[in-house]
Amino acid sequence: ALILSPTSKSFSIWKETPIPMYLKIYLFHWTNPELLGKVKPHFIEKGPYVF
């Protein structure tokens, strides 16, 4: 187990990372699911959602 406490060696790196860290998530909205198997699926990209 990794214990993160103010006295641990990795705490300062976790608290203020030396490089910016971001998580980018892209979602896709399927606009024509009722036509599954009949036509090519059509997707609209949503995002990025950045955390």
UniProtKB/TrEMBL annotation:
Transmembrane segments: none annotated. GO terms for molecular function: scavenger receptor activity. The keyword Cell membrane applies. Keywords: Cell membrane, Glycoprotein, Membrane, Transmembrane, Transmembrane helix. One of its GO terms (cellular component) is plasma membrane. It comes from the Eukaryota. The keyword Methyltransferase does not apply. It is found in: Cell membrane. It holds the Pfam family CD36. PANTHER family: FI02050P-RELATED, SCAVENGER RECEPTOR CLASS B TYPE-1 SR-B1. Belongs to the CD36 family. This is Uncharacterized protein. It comes from Bracon brevicornis.
